[in-house]
Write a structure and sequence with these properties.
Chain lengths: ~280, ~375
């Protein structure tokens, strides 16, 4: 019983982490049609900023708050300078963002060396349920993920900003004719997606520690999750991330981890092959 | 009804992408018209071949070993250029075929003591071919044509999954891979690093290059170029676009497998990175750098990237990947046709085809 509870918590907490990482990726892929290969490096940057704050003696939460803003601002600049040129051709966008990611990753590698740097959890200790102990920080991540998800949903579905964003996605020409500045909306969307990646990096760095290939580890899982969920909506990628995260965390409990690792990808690709529109088809929120 | 609508929309979207591409190449076109009379490609190919032939005579021994590695990687780059540069299939997992063939021949040498060159090279080629047929058949064939995004992410995922499998599977040596593979042999002779191995792989590269050149200049190559430019139109002409793609993908896989088996014997070991995302993206870099859609561009790109990286690795090891990323970004933004486009005109890059060779191409 206790074991089952711990397993469930582990699965839930890993699922939450994947959802957090995929949120930004999914928003950029759904709203802009770009599969951003640099997203993993935005996660890495968020983690690095948190580490910097910690190393400079600032409170860790200060770094965690700053990370999404800094990474979001960087995303806005990159969109205006580079990403904007790629909208016509999705494959070229992949290659271009891959090059961007390479630059960021190697720059961070140069800064931190080949080390694994640990950042302590801002909320340490554990939460006890009788004889069961679960990590307080992982629990906090689950709570924050839920809050961020709800916030994103409300932002996209209930605010005028979200409405403009969706209008730009649905019909750019009509949106422009209605007086919406579509380049600004694309810039804002990309910045928003980057900021979410920065936040994800900041929150997970105490769990996974900081190393240069941190982002790469999640990138492919993230892409697979977006495709399983379905590109085009906000809910799709989140649902996909839930499924992929849960499967990747749950399967190793019932079979050899190596087999489980590969099986998740095989299952996902087969699923997408026979249902290209993903779990949740359709556009909008 | 909605299905046909989406087809039309895709066709339009394809045209928009074409226009964007056309705009990019338009800048080079004025220069092309001046150059139209001259043939640059055979000259470039000849220069590269002569340089490759004399290289071991002027290079020191350890550089010949390095040059051999570069030639093998150039062969690998050729396989990616066929798939992406000619058929427009983005294979982000080309290393899957390269590495699995490497693992395959390493296992042959380790467990069955088979190192005969006439057995291991065909075996490696077949392994690459088989994996490419499996993965390509699954990703490309089927009732509905797959999107380019799905194919590129599918190949990427395949390569990543293979990497994870190789890392975790004890039989394949886990993290360490398979070390100290016995050298390739022919009768009593053993191919160890050095000039003999160099000329062997150079000979193989030249043969494969000529075969590829023949292939892309045939009617089949014309259909492939059509696929790359506008798949919808090729399908409307009655070609089985998906079959063409699967065939060229399998051929690419076979060449990658050949390169992978040579690489395994040359290095003497195989390790999980060889099937993984790192090598997969590296080959993309080579080809984009040199210029995709021109076979020689893939070779030149490999030589330049590997050469500069080797040259800089002593003093600037840490910043070289950053420079590489920046250069790649610049090439993608400003030279989408690669470095070769500095000397090679657009008209010659597209080339002339099969029976239509004698006829004049449409006036620009």
């Amino acid at each position: 019983m206790a074991n089952a509870f711990v397993a469930a918590f582990e699965i839930l907490s890993f699922g939450a982490i994947i959802v957090l990482i995929v949120l930004g990726l999914g928003i950029i892929a759904s709203m802009m049609g770009i599969f951003n290969f640099a997203q993993g490096e935005f996660v890495l940057l968020g983690a690095y900023i948190t580490y910097l704050a910690y190393a400079k003696g600032l409170p860790i939460w200060a770094g965690m708050v700053a990370a999404p803003f800094v990474v979001g601002a960087l995303g806005f600049v990159l969109e205006a300078l580079i990403i904007r040129r790629f909208y016509a051709a999705p494959i070229v966008a992949m290659l271009g963002t891959y090059a961007l990611g390479l630059i960021i990753r190697e720059a961070v590698r140069g800064l931190i060396g080949g080390f694994y740097l640990t950042v302590p959890e801002p909320i340490g200790g554990s939460i006890d349920f009788g004889t069961i102990h679960i990590s307080a920080w992982r629990f906090t991540i689950i709570v924050i993920t839920l809050l961020v998800m709800a916030g994103c949903y409300l932002l996209l579905s209930r605010t005028s900003f979200g409405l403009r964003m969706r209008a730009t996605l649905e019909n750019p020409a009509l949106a422009r004719a209605s007086g919406i500045s579509t380049p600004l909306m694309y810039g804002a969307t990309f910045a928003f997606g980057s900021a979410l990646a920065g936040l994800a990096g900041a929150l997970i760095v105490p769990v996974f520690s900081l190393y240069a290939d941190l982002g790469l580890r999640f990138l492919i899982q993230g892409f697979v999750a977006v495709m399983v969920g379905g590109v085009g909506s906000f809910i799709g990628p989140v649902a996909g991330a839930g499924v992929i995260g849960t499967l990747s965390a749950a399967l190793p409990w019932v079979m050899a981890p190596v087999v489980a690792d590969v099986l998740v990808f095989v299952l996902a690709i087969v699923f997408i092959k026979f249902r290209p529109q993903g779990l949740i088809a359709g556009k909008g929120v | 009804m909605p299905k046909s609508m989406s087809v039309v929309r895709e066709a339009i979207a394809g045209d928009e992408a074409d226009d964007a591409m056309a705009e990019r190449v338009a800048t080079g076109q004025a220069r092309d018209q001046v150059k139209a009379g001259r043939k640059v490609l055979p000259i470039v190919e000849g220069v590269v071949l002569i340089a490759a032939l004399v290289a071991p005579l002027v290079l020191q021994d350890y550089l010949t070993v390095f040059a051999t590695r570069v030639i093998i990687l150039a062969l690998f780059a050729l396989s990616f250029d066929l798939v992406w540069g000619y058929a427009g299939i983005m294979s982000f997992g080309q290393a899957l075929f390269f590495g699995s063939a490497g693992y395959g021949v390493a296992l042959l040498a380790r467990d069955l003591d088979i190192t005969n060159i006439f057995l291991v090279l065909p075996a490696g080629t077949l392994i690459g071919l088989a994996f490419a047929l499996l993965l390509g058949g699954f990703l490309l064939l089927g009732r509905h044509p797959s999107s380019v995004i799905f194919v590129s992410l599918g190949t990427l995922t395949g390569s990543y999954a293979a990497d994870r499998l190789a890392r975790g599977w004890y039989y394949l040596g886990g993290q360490n891979g398979i070390p100290s593979i016995a050298p390739m042999s022919l009768g009593g002779y053993e191919f160890t690093e050095g000039p003999a191995f160099y000329y062997l792989v150079l000979g193989i590269l030249v043969v494969v290059y000529l075969l590829c050149r023949f292939l892309v200049r045939s009617q089949f190559g014309l259909a492939l170029a059509g696929l790359r430019e506008n798949e919808q139109r090729i399908a409307f002409f009655g070609y089985k676009a998906q079959h063409l793609k699967a065939i060229i993908f399998a051929i690419g896989g076979a060449i990658a497998g050949l390169a992978g088996s040579l690489y395994a014997f040359h290095e003497g070991f195989v390790w999980p990175n060889m099937v993984g995302v790192v090598v997969s993206t590296q080959v993309v870099l080579y080809v984009l750098f040199g210029g995709s859609g021109t076979l020689i561009g893939a070779v030149i790109g490999t030589v330049i990237v590997e050469g500069v990286s080797f040259w800089l690795s002593d003093n600037y090891r840490d910043i070289w990947p950053i420079i590489l990323g920046l250069l790649l970004l610049l090439v993608i933004l400003f030279r989408p046709l690669g470095l070769i486009s500095f000397v090679l005109g657009e008209r010659e890059r597209v080339g002339s085809f099969g029976a239509a060779r004698k006829e004049k191409r449409n006036a620009p």
